[in-house]
Amino acid sequence: MDVIFIRELRVGALIGFHKRERHAPQTLQVDLEIGIADAAVFASDRVADCIDYEKVTARIGELAAERHYNLVEAFAERIARTLIDEFGASCAKVSVAKLGILKDAGLVGVMIERGTR
Predict the structure, then answer these.
(1) Which of 1, 21, 59, 97 yields a CA-CA distance of 20 to 30 A from 50?
(2) What are the DSSP calls for 35-98, one per residue?
(3) What is the pTM of this model?
(4) Which CATH architecture has domain 3-115?
């Protein structure tokens, strides 16, 4: 399986179901594995044949700013669906984590996989 990966992308989002989380943005860490559906990019060396990771990261920022999410699970699902539906990924593995939300843990989050590998 050929993938584009993005690690430790930081985005600000209004996320969480606690009252205090509805008004103060939190920093999330997003890790992605994006399945490359078209192997043409390996022979062509053309950006037009590939998923543009700069556009992907900009779109994730837009998704984070669009609305309040109660759960990181819902945000991760939205990212995965966007990668498949808008960017033509064959599959997506998405990890979304809150930073420093628990005293004794650096990251707390979810990892999901969507599509076919």
Answers:
(1) 97
(2) E---THHHHH--GGGS--HHHHHHHHHHHHHHS-BS-HHHHHHHHHHHHHHTT--SEEEEEEEE
(3) 0.91
(4) 2-Layer Sandwich (3.30)
